[in-house]
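ok so i was messing around last nite and threw this chain in just to see what happens. nothing serious, just curious
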Amino acid sequence: MTNLSSIATDLQTINNLLVKYEKNKALEYEECLVLSTFYLHYKDTNAIIAMAEDELNTNAEHLFDIAKQLSEAATSFIVIYNQYSDFFQSFDPKPICDAYLKPFEEQYQEAKGISTQLWKDYSSLSNRLDFMAYEDDEYQATEDKCDKAKAEYDKAHAKTDELFTRFDKERRKTVSLYYFDMMFLEVLVTRIDCIAKSIITDIDNLKAQGVL
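result:
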């Protein structure tokens, strides 16, 4: 279940990935997906505020500690990002996504080509059979070939469907990364930092007033 603590932990993971990216000048596909997934999961900052309000009513001290952790992680992100902002802003996920998806697409296209040819072979035999008399000496042999061709096509078609489903699943998973921009993260984390700092300030004020 998502909570403020998990956001702080995930943000620290993001910070580690940014450091690694700057150092190695590259990230693996799955690592890049972590970046876009973080943005996707936490872009609704109103939900973060709502979580903080719920936590304030149940355990203000815990919320205060988590808010400090979240602010520290956000501050670290901002420092790292600003230090290498030009490099991070040049991040282009599209070639990474294309390279990752290529094997899935190639396997599907190859299977599709085989299925298409088998369908043509079966259709040719089936059409030939339609114009043959049942009493024809070649009818039974042609029917057997037709049945065999249909079975081969059905098997290949099932394999093609399986490979397309896998390709489509990976393609859908990749969409959030394909159109991702590092600036999305920078804006989001800056907003998260403001929320965390506001939580800290509000709880300090409530303590000063003797409410907590």
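not much to say yet. The mean pLDDT is 93.
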